Amino acid sequence: MIDLTRSLVDYLRGDPILATKLGAFRGYPSVFGVSPIPEPATTPFIVTQSVADTTLDKKSGVMREIEQDIGIYDDEDGSVADIESIAEYVREKMRGSFSVPDWTISTVHVSGPTISDVEDLHGRTLSARIILDR
């Protein structure tokens, strides 16, 4: 099993600039790999999940293409400018490097943000296409 979501959560939680822009949960920035998020978490928050996982043909070894959504949400009573700023920051951060146990990241393409408002929350979603190799 590929632990891309856990690696991405750890990568985003470990960013000190991003930590100042997000709410908190149990002493950590509000970044989650599951939905729904825990009730006592404060906003704004990020939730990321794999939405597709494809094995790619390769002569030797294995390649996987994973589509990962990264949603940024804040209370509806706040400004969307805050979540759009966070989304742009995360988009740029995805250009950096993070590690996934037992895999090498070959490619990361990020699109968005797109509007993903839900009941009582403003939302923006980034879609990442991540190719892993080993």
What features would you describe in this structure?
The protein is an alpha+beta fold and 134 residues long. It has one domain (4-133): STM4215-like (2-Layer Sandwich). The protein has 3 helices and 7 strands. Strand 6 and strand 7 form a beta hairpin.
How many domain units? 1
Q: Distance between termini?
A: 13 Å
Along the chain, the helix and strand elements come as HHEEEEEHEE
Q: What name does CATH use for the topology?
A: STM4215-like
Largest sheet report: 5 strands, mixed
**Range of strand content:** 35-45%
Low-confidence stretches: none
Which class best fits the helix and strand makeup? alpha+beta
Mean pLDDT: 93
Q: Class, according to the CATH hierarchy? A: Alpha Beta
* Form type: elongated
Write a concise synopsis of the structure shown.
Helix content is 22%, strand content 42%.
